[in-house]
Write a structure and sequence with these properties.
7 strands, Alpha-D-Glucose-1,6-Bisphosphate, Chain A, domain 4, 153 residues, 25% helix, 7-stranded antiparallel beta sheet, 4 helices
C-alpha cells in the first residue's frame, strides 16, 4: 500500500527573504521571463494567482521531458511565515506517476542569511516509481536563478 512521502531541498539565497517571497508570490507568471529555458508559459486560470483558490497552469522543462504541464491550485498562503502550498490537480507526466503531489515554498531569513526551502509531499502510483528528485533539482535551480535576478534588479 502506498503512503505519503516527503522530500525537501533548502537553498541559501543572497537577496532578502521578504524580497524573494514577495517577487515569487506576486509575480509567479514572470518566472517564464526570468528563466525561459525552464518555464515556457505560466498562466493564471482562476483567481488572482497569489491567494488561496487560485489555479495556475505551468508549462516547463523538467529532466528529459520538454513538454511538462501541471495545473496547480494554491491551497495555503501564510504571508507572516512566507509560505505558499500548491496542490497538483492535473499534470503530465507528474500525475501519471503519482496519485497525489503537493509542493510548498517556505522562505526564511533574519536579514543576514536567507533560505528557500521547497517541500514535496507525494504518493507514488506504484512502488516502481522513482522519488521525484528531478523536481527538487529543478526547484533549487529556479531558486538560484530568481535570487540572481533579484540581486541585479
Amino acid at each position: 500500500m502506498a503512503q505519503i512521502q516527503k522530500l525537501d531541498v533548502q537553498t541559501a539565497i543572497q537577496s532578502s527573504a521578504d524580497k524573494f517571497y514577495g517577487k515569487f508570490k506576486n509575480n509567479m507568471t514572470e518566472l517564464s521571463k526570468v528563466y525561459p529555458e525552464i518555464y515556457k508559459n505560466i498562466v493564471v486560470l482562476e483567481g488572482d494567482g497569489k491567494s488561496v483558490g487560485s489555479v495556475i497552469l505551468w508549462k516547463y522543462v523538467c529532466g528529459s521531458n520538454s513538454n511538462s504541464v501541471t495545473k496547480e491550485k494554491i491551497v495555503a498562503v501564510d504571508d507572516k511565515n512566507r509560505s505558499i502550498t500548491f496542490e497538483v490537480m492535473e499534470g503530465d507526466p507528474m500525475l501519471n506517476s503519482f496519485k497525489s503531489f503537493a509542493l510548498r515554498i517556505h522562505v526564511t531569513g533574519n536579514g543576514e542569511r536567507s533560505f528557500v526551502k521547497w517541500s514535496l509531499e507525494f504518493e507514488k502510483a506504484n512502488e516502481d516509481v522513482p522519488h521525484p528528485n528531478m523536481y527538487l533539482d529543478l526547484l533549487a535551480k529556479v531558486t538560484k536563478k530568481l535570487d540572481a535576478y533579484l540581486l541585479k534588479a
